[in-house]
Write a structure and sequence with these properties.
UDP-N-acetylmuramoyl-L-alanine:D-glutamate ligase, Protein-Tyrosine Phosphatase, Chain A, Rossmann fold, peptidoglycan synthesis, globular
């Protein structure tokens, strides 16, 4: 046994991944959280990790060799205060990852405002399909692997590179710890209004990341994104490779179906490769291009990488089909930013044509709670036929004015059970219902499926 680490905030996707990696490396791992419930709790317990409810000082007695502190922890937390008063050794999750796993790896990092989880899952799958046995740490559960992290059996490691801050004692973005050799920047918009005052502050963090990429590395980025171009202009010492639909990128996709389920990849070597897969939306086509470009950098032949796409099983909570009842399909989607909401709905619209798309949306993220996007939210739902908005407790502003600006019929609710009943009454066979939230949305997913099932009897 290498030693004992205790993780504060262990049931978050990232910290849970750290726990799995530490256990795999031979550490004794324990952890505390206020949200000890499946699926993360069962995944951790199956790995032999002891979980403790809450943040009691007693969880750190006897003292572990090191405390790994999640970025949700703050001063005033009982475990944090005890840790500091007792002089325990502590670090952040990203720092622990860097020092214990990434320091001698070829790191492929996927950054950007949207698409990080899907793109990093695609990239890990392509490398695995090519026989490279990559390690990975992803902010979701890729269907091809069934877990969010593993150490791998090679020098390659794929990490979802988040720009959110590292810990209460380290306000740098998480991704500056990873020192990647291959970097993907999918897109770049303002987000995380709770920690960043404006887009320029985020660009500064991406600039710090670019300063760490070797001259012999590669920066893969979407073509024609002003915020990315401005960031690269601040300083880039590494070759770049671009991707996109249309324009003149190095990696280009030609859509063969409007919904993105079929497209042709035009690679930098002049070859063209047709793709048929089960994923919708132009944003997912772009995610695939980014993954192909990054995989090529570590030597995966284009034809092999393209062949892997057809076997990609997706990521939980990324337009994940939960079930179909009486012809009504219900999807779960993590979208929590206007651009993500719009692109998801556009993909569904292109797929169903004149069929009806019903959106249930909980604006739950910290940025949403602060009202940063209140003027943009209405327009992002234009591809839905009907929108049901949920006003979550603690939202700092009312959705009522936004409802009035909606380009499609919209209503506002404050009770998830009533919302499920309203959607059931409105839905008819052939409809697509997509539930959008980065949280549990009060369990509305199963409430709705149960209501739809009850309505058939």
């Amino acid at each position: 046994m290498k030693g004992h680490i205790h993780i504060l905030g262990i049931c978050g996707t990232f910290m849970g991944g750290i726990a799995l990696l530490a256990r795999e490396l031979g550490y004794k791992v324990t952890g505390s959280d206020t949200n000890v419930y499946p699926p993360m709790s069962t995944q951790l317990q199956a790995a032999g990790i002891d979980l403790m409810e809450g943040y009691a000082a007693s969880h750190l007695q006897p003292a572990p060799d090191q405390v790994v502190v999640g970025n949700a922890m703050s001063r005033g937390n009982p475990a944090v205060e005890y840790m500091l008063n007792a002089g325990l050794a502590y670090t952040s999750g990203p720092q622990w990852l860097s020092e214990n796993l990434l320091h001698d790896k070829w790191v492929l990092a996927v950054a950007g405002t949207h698409g990080k989880t899907t793109t990093s899952s695609l990239l890990a799958w392509i490398l695995d399909y090519a026989g490279l046995q990559p390690g990975f740490l992803i902010g979701g559960v890729p269907g091809n692997f069934g877990l969010s992290a593993r150490g791998g059996g090679s020098d390659f490691f794929v990490v979802e590179a988040d720009e959110y801050d590292t810990a209460f004692f380290d306000k740098r973005s998480k991704f500056v710890h990873y020192r990647p050799r291959t970097l993907v920047i999918n897109n770049l918009e303002f987000d995380h209004a709770d920690i960043f005052p404006d887009l320029a502050a985020i660009q500064r963090q991406f600039h710090h990341l670019l300063r760490c990429i070797p001259g012999e590395g590669l920066v893969v980025h979407r073509e024609g994104i002003a915020a990315i171009d401005e960031t690269l202009a601040m300083g880039c010492w590494t070759p770049t490779s671009t991707f996109g639909i249309g324009g003149t990128p190095d990696w280009q996709a030609e859509l063969l179906a409007d919904d993105g389920a079929s497209f042709r990849v035009h690679a930098p070597d002049g070859t063209a490769h047709a793709v048929q897969w089960d994923y919708l939306g132009q944003h997912n086509v772009e995610n695939a291009l980014a993954a192909l470009a990054a995989a090529r950098h570590v030597g995966v032949p284009v034809a092999v990488a393209v062949a892997a796409l057809a076997g990609f099983l997706g990521v939980k909570r990324r337009l994940e089909l939960l079930g179909e009842v009486a012809g009504v399909a219900v999807y779960d989607d993590f979208a929590h930013h206007p651009t993500a909401i719009a692109t998801t709905l556009q993909g569904l619209r292109a797929s169903v044509g004149s069929g009806r798309v019903i959106a249930l949306i909980e604006p739950r993220s910290n940025t949403m709670r602060l009202g940063q996007y209140r003027t943009q939210l209405a327009a992002c739902t234009a591809d839905a036929n009907q929108v049901y908005w949920f006003q979550p407790p603690g939202l700092d502003w009312s959705l009522e004015t936004m409802i009035a600006q909606s380009p499609v019929p919209a209503s506002l609710g404050t009770d998830v059970s009533e919302l499920a009943r309203q959607v059931t009454a409105y839905a008819r066979p052939g409809d697509r219902v997509v539930i959008m939230s980065n949280g549990s949305f009060g369990g509305i997913h199963h409430l709705l499926l149960n209501e739809l099932e009850a309505a058939t009897h």
